[in-house]
Design a protein that fits this description.
329 residues, alpha/beta, 2 domains, five-stranded parallel β-sheet, 14 helices, 13 strands, 42% helix, globular
Length: 329
């Protein structure tokens, strides 16, 4: 298990948090039209120190959302185009022999950045996908026995096409479990699509995006979100939801303890974005599907119950697990 990071002390107040997060949302919204839920989810992952997986059909703005988030933050950004011939060393880095010094020196890979855009991650082989496992969980990479720390903050925004698309590989369970949230962009509504045609005929909206935050301010926002209070009753409620997924007969694989921890971290940011310094049960249930669904596996034959058996199981679990009444104390 990785060492526990030192606690961050908030250096901003609620007003600063609201102003800075609103600026980031507004900046991304200049590029992503009519998708406030997707924009909010991306911000939640950034401030909860998680990673975001955007899954949808081609052409609906998955990469555009990732690039808009990166452009809104003045931090190091690297993009990795995952292809079948991409090698693990291209991601993490390799040791190269220096004939002058007669020593091997480490050449950093594309993962060494504050924000890493892993575009079409499921078009590379599982071997290359696994190169991100250590980085996403521990904030470091180990090459040839030497460990190299990644920048802080560190966020992976990955896009992938559905498995029904040609040339895709399924993400391993361990890889999916490292993503805090999985979201879908969905098709825009008619009005937003017409507006897109008018605005983007001759102008690239990304060209007008300027950074409204830097790595230091993001670290301060993360510290504020971490200070949000979670009552013991809400913690017990979150654990009860996770436990229910592990015994549900319609699910073959339930939520991991990592999933429970990330659900709480995401709920803290969700509450802070709503202007509260405490988490309520509604924050947890609002995030139940985006945080847990991609980690779970349906039991054999469960697909007969519907097209999305995992989401249906989570909704049923949310209905039957008792919600705490006095959750703030």
């Amino acid at each position: 298990m990785p060492d526990t990071p030192p606690p961050r002390t908030p250096i901003i107040d609620a007003q600063d948090f609201a102003a800075q997060t609103s600026a980031i949302v507004g900046s991304i919204g200049r590029v992503i039209d009519g998708k406030p839920d997707a924009v909010r989810s991306a911000l939640v992952c950034l401030l909860a120190e998680g990673h975001l997986l955007i899954e949808d059909v081609p052409g609906v703005g998955k990469t555009m959302l990732a690039r808009a988030l990166a452009a809104s933050v003045d931090a190091t950004v690297r993009r990795i185009q995952f292809t079948p011939d991409l090698l693990p060393g291209d991601v993490t880095g390799v040791s190269v022999y220096n004939p002058v010094d007669r020593e091997f020196e480490f050449k950093r890979g594309a993962v060494f950045a504050n924000i890493v855009i892993a575009d079409e991650i499921n078009r590379s082989s599982p071997k290359t996908q696994s190169a991100l496992l250590e980085a996403m969980e521990e904030g470091q990479v180990t090459v040839d026995g030497s460990t190299h720390l990644l920048p802080d903050p560190f966020l992976v925004v990955a896009t992938q096409n559905p498995l029904e698309m040609e040339g895709t590989y399924a993400l391993p369970e361990a890889q999916r479990d490292r993503f805090m949230m999985r979201i879908s962009m969905g098709y825009p509504d008619p009005a937003a699509e017409v507006e897109m045609l008018r605005q983007r005929d001759t102008v690239n909206p990304l060209a007008s995006v300027t950074a409204v935050a830097d790595a230091a301010s993001i670290t301060a926002l993360i510290a504020w979100a971490r200070s949000v209070h979670v009552a013991p009753a809400v913690e017990e409620y979150t654990v009860a939801l996770a436990q229910a997924t592990r015994v549900d007969p319609s699910l073959h694989l339930g939520a991991s303890p990592r999933a429970t921890l990330q659900l709480i971290r995401a709920a803290k940011v969700w509450a802070a974005l709503d202007g509260r310094d405490f988490v309520i049960p509604d924050d947890v249930t609002a995030l139940l599907i985006p945080v847990l669904a991609h980690r779970l596996l349906p039991a054999r034959g469960a697909h007969r119950a519907g097209a999305q058996p995992v989401e249906a199981a989570l909704r049923q679990i949310a209905e039957r697990v008792r919600v705490p009444v006095a959750a703030r104390s």
